[in-house]
Design goal:
Chains A, B: This is Ribosomal RNA small subunit methyltransferase E. Chains A, B: One of its GO terms (cellular component) is cytoplasm. Chains A, B: Specifically methylates the N3 position of the uracil ring of uridine 1498 (m3U1498) in 16S rRNA. Acts on the fully assembled 30S ribosomal subunit. Two copies of one chain form a homodimer. Chain A is an alpha/beta fold. Chain A has two domains: about 70 residues, Ribosomal Protein L25, Chain P (Beta Barrel); about 170 residues, Alpha/beta knot (3-Layer(aba) Sandwich), CATH 3.40.1280. The first copy, chain A, has seven helices and twelve strands. In chain A, strands 6, 7, 8, 9, 10, 11 and 12 form a seven-stranded parallel β-sheet that branches. A five-stranded mixed β-sheet of chain A has the order 1-3-4-5-2. The longest helix of chain A has 15 residues. The radius of gyration of chain A is 21 Å and the shape is elongated. The two termini of chain A are about 35 Å apart.
């Protein structure tokens, strides 16, 4: 089999010897755009069965067939972490979704706050961005991108056990705040922190560029699940804050440890 | 004085009562583009004297005069941290410079590695990006963007006391690696780490998308200043890696503590 350099996300089941009939779109991409021929290798994943090396068995204009040869990577599911953010300008929203997929989150929730400008998002387009990011970064999992939801509504039904890392200004030191919120009553060394196998369900909340409204802040402060965390002494743009917050969470409580 | 919402970086000295003669370009921006008139307020900084609220004393087409009223923020110099990265596609290189300015570094060094595609950068354009990022994120300091330099040459003259956080795959856990490299012989808790006032001079090194060549890796491994650090189990794009690495450094050794 030729060296497989293309990584393709698809919905079909994958397994040893499993034939994978291709949709017209997939066939167009592999045979029309990427010019693969019969016998060529391709890496495929579906977010459930890990990554597989597959071989082109039939190549046509409107369809084709891959056959899975061997698993090249197991499914790696990220920790149970959600990212909530207020959509901003298109390019930066795309960026946040791409980065969240790279950094390892389970679910991406665009939220509408009082100071969020955008009233709608293209969920399908953002989901496609998450898929593309996973294809490019070697991921075997694709986070689910949800539709835009009002923060107020989301918080009204918030699960009791899911903690929220609220990235806010003028808070405790970055890691100390996160550790304290993770149940550490007094600052302990990181190496002693309750670092896994599972930190439990969490979400990271990034504010809109204009910050949260007074009422939103008050509500967040009242919620027991909320852990306010500082992202340093400088003001970060929302897209920077998203990557920084996910790094902090992953390196303190997640799978970067 | 009207509410000052515009933040402007300029080279002129700033101080109480200090008159600031404007260049033609600055006058064009303030009076032509932003339509400020006499008496209007503007926030100015020069990277040395903190942030000042100034008032328009004279407004002309080819020049004008501001007068500094009061200091609104002291100069905040970031820790002695450099960011070295291999330039990538234009938009992502711009992004790295913008993020580095937001996250707090002293100097930005684009480096040419064996697997770096670009042979040249527009230093002036990148420096302007750093200025713009500082203007927008409320910074009072602007990192210096250097010209492209070959990694080999840079490392040949590397200062003995400046440690390098080398972001590489298959390394120690993110923070454990950094702490160990910071002189911690055995893993200690973060709270006990030597966290300030100064961690000493450091640099963060982000590889090109294709990774480092064998010879480069061998050289880095031989250098005593080099501290290899993992950025988690997923492959990160260079721009994501830059923000993640700076977050890690700032939250463990820098001024986010």
């Amino acid at each position: 089999m030729a060296d497989a350099k293309i990584r393709l996300f698809l919905e079909q089941p994958l397994g040893a010897g499993q034939p994978v009939p291709l949709t017209q779109e997939q066939a167009h991409y592999l045979f029309g755009v990427m010019r693969l021929g019969k016998g060529a290798g391709v890496l495929v994943f579906n977010g459930r069965d890990g990554e597989w090396r597959a071989e082109v068995a039939e190549a046509g204009k409107r369809g084709g067939l891959l056959v899975c040869a061997e698993q090249t990577a197991p499914l790696r599911v990220p920790p149970d972490l959600w990212l909530m953010f207020a959509p901003i300008k298109k390019a930066r929203t795309d960026f946040i979704v791409e980065k969240a997929a790279e950094m390892g989150v389970r679910r991406i929730l665009p939220v509408q706050t009082r100071f969020t400008n955008s009233e709608r998002i293209r969920q399908d387009r953002l989901q496609a961005h998450a898929v593309e990011a996973a294809e490019q970064c070697g991921g075997t999992f694709v986070p689910e991108v949800c539709d835009l939801v009002a923060l107020d509504r989301l918080l009204a039904d918030w699960p009791a056990e899911r903690r929220i890392m609220w990235c806010d200004e003028n808070m405790l030191g970055a890691r100390a705040g996160l550790l304290a919120g993770a149940g550490e009553t007094e600052p302990r060394g990181f190496e002693e922190a309750p670092k896994s196998p599972s930190p439990g369900p969490w979400a990271v909340l990034i504010g809109p560029e204009g910050g949260f409204a007074e009422a939103e802040q008050a509500r967040l402060r009242r919620m027991e699940q909320v852990v306010p965390v500082s992202l340093g002494p400088r003001i970060l743009r929302a897209d920077t804050a998203a990557v920084a917050a996910l790094t902090l969470w992953q390196s303190v409580l997640g799978d970067w440890v």
